[in-house]
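Q: Sequence in, structure out?
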Amino acid sequence: MVSSPALAEQRVVLRNISWQTFTAMLDEMGQERATRVAYIDGMLEIMTPLGEHENTNRFVERLIHALAEEMNLNIKSFGSLTLKRENMKRGAEPDSCYYIQNEPRVRNKRNIDLNIDPPPDLVLEIDITSSSIDKRPIYAAVGVPEIWRYDGRSLQVFLLSQLDSSYTLTQQSPTFSILDLNLVPQLIAQSLIDGETQTLRSFRTWVQQQLSSK
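A: Exactly. Output:
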C-alpha cells in the first residue's frame, strides 16, 4: 500500500458570499481561532493550518526575527492580522505579518486600524498545499509592499509596484538584502535534522559573517 503524504493545510472554498456575510462570519469566528480566511470577488477561502504548515511558519518567523536582531532593526509582529479593505471588498489573513520600516508608527499599538495605520511592511504566506485564491490582489488592495511565499520547496519574494499596484517576483528581499533566498529551504530541512535551536545558531553566525564582510 502506498501512503499519501500528509496534508499541510485543509481548505474550504465558498462562493457567492457577500461582503456583509464575510464580515459577519469574521465577527462570529472571533480572533481566538486557528483558521485563516481570504476573500475576493465573492469567493471565501477558509484555511486550517496543519502540522507542517505551522511548524514551517513558526520557524521562518524565527529566521525573520534573527535577521532583524542581527541587523539592529526594530520589528513588530502581528501574526495573522485580518487585513481588509471594505471599499474594494477584499480581505485576507496572512500566516504572519511584520512592521519594520513603519515600526515606529505602530510601536505603541496593540490593535491596527488600516483606515489610519499603514499596512504591514512584510507578509509571510505558507502555501504548501496550493491555495484556491491568489492573495496578491488582496494584499495589493491593502498596500502591503513585500510578500514572502514559501511553497514547501522554495521561498519567493514579491514586491508591490506603485505604478500598477501589482506584484513582481524578485530575487532579493529589499528589507533583508543580505539573505540568500535559496538558503531558507535548506535551513528548514536542516532544522529537522539538527533541531531548530542549533540551526538558528548557525544561521545567526552566517548573518554575522555576511554583515561583517560588507
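Helices lie at 19-29, 51-70, 103-106, 136-142, 183-194, 196-212.
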